[in-house]
Amino acid sequence: MTTSTRPSALDQRLFRASVVSSTRLTPNMQRVTVRGEELRAFPWRGYDHWFRLFFRCAHQDSFREPDIAADTWWKPYLAMPDEVRPYCANYTVADFRADAGELDIDVVVHRGADGETEGTVAIWACAVEPGEEMALLDQGLMYDAPADASSVLLVADESGLPAVAGILRSLPADMSVRVVQEVPAEADRRDLPGPAGTRIDWVCRTDPHEIPGTAALAALCADGTVDATGYAFVVGEQKLATEARRHLHRSGMPKDRITFSGFWKSARR
Ligand SMILES: Cc1cc2nc3c(=O)[nH]c(=O)nc-3n(C[C@H](O)[C@H](O)[C@H](O)COP(=O)(O)OP(=O)(O)OC[C@H]3O[C@@H](n4cnc5c(N)ncnc54)[C@H](O)[C@@H]3O)c2cc1C
After folding, report:
1. Exposed end of the chain (fewer CB within 10 Å): N or C?
2. Atom of ligand 1 at shortest range from CA of 92
3. What is the largest CA-CA distance in the chain?
4. What is the pLDDT of residues 64-82, one digit of tens each?
5. What's this model's pTM, rounded to 2 decimal places?
6. H or E element: which one contains 53?
7. 38 membership: H or E segment, kind and range
8. What does the DSSP assignment read for 170-222?
9. Atom of ligand 1 at shortest distance to CA of 91?
């Protein structure tokens, strides 16, 4: 099981890389692969290892790295003029190959009311060309199960699918695991290698206008069984994260056995 979760401020450094490819993994997920000499040293720890992704905005001529020398790197970052300040967003390591210095990023391709791709990262991921420069800032793990956890429950919408996949691959082979994983469409389901006997409840949205996370929350709440001595990791749209935590706590799971994070917030509330 994991212990410390975040890199210390002293570890903080940018890993520069450039895009190798961008391909559609499933109908609503784009995989961007990046490569760089510096990435060979990226201290990947499996699980839900996440990072800040920096890249050039559409109106900028070139990629300018932020200065992350100080703990409070976001202050000089936010002070950068709009013409040069790179875009910054949070993403999970979908896969990592140290020998090649390669890292995969799985980006949800979400759409607006009339079906167009929306979101700066999704638009970037779908259009980016090989050679495009970018950088990563390591943020460590959020997954933080207590050593005595008798089981693991993972609940996520599609933005948490890379984290769920990474956690499943990292868990001990004998861990008892249940997953409630929402995806926009049946075809977004994928093989999720993990401990033998892992129970995976895929929840596919039937209404494309439904806010992501709603169906996963309903599926979780419909199943009354909660292992109070287990550990839960709940991520995705903000309401899924907060309401699932509330449900689990009310059902007997102590708060310190639940990691929850609103990965994004729907503007439709
Ligand atoms: C630790 C962490 C790890 C994450 N890992 C991943 C990851 O591996 N893959 C991934 O795809 N996302 C991941 N996310 C979520 C991602 O950071 C957000 O979805 C982010 O808002 C995308 O940035 P954007 O600039 O494209 O969209 P924004 O400019 O933030 O949002 C634009 C519009 O899109 C909507 N929106 C944003 N995200 C989604 C979504 N997923 N579905 C539907 N509508 C959305 C917003 O509500 C808003 O209306 C992670 C978040 C965190 C905190």
Report:
1. C
2. 8
3. 54
4. 999 998 888 999 999 999 9
5. 0.96
6. strand 50-55
7. none
8. HS-TT--EEEEEEESSGGG------STT-EEEEEE-S-TTSPTTHHHHHHHHH
9. 5
pLDDT tens digits, 233-254: 999 999 999 999 999 999 999 9
Per DSSP, 150 falls in state: S
Which of these ranges, 4-18, 28-42, 108-122, 217-231, has the smallest mean pLDDT? 4-18
Give, for ligand 1, the residue of 25, 164, 264 to mutate: max count of ligand atoms closer than 8 Å to Cβ.
264
Domains annotated for the chain, with CATH where assigned, are 9-140 (2.40.30.10), 152-264 (3.40.50.80)
Assigned token pair, 39:
């990435």
From 105, 108, 234, give the residue whose CB has the most ligand 1 atoms within 8 Å, as the site to mutate: 108
The radius of gyration of the chain's CA atoms, rounded to the nearest angstrom, is 19
Q: Are 28 and 109 in contact (CB under 8 A)?
A: yes
Q: Which two tokens stand for residue 212?
A: 């992501």
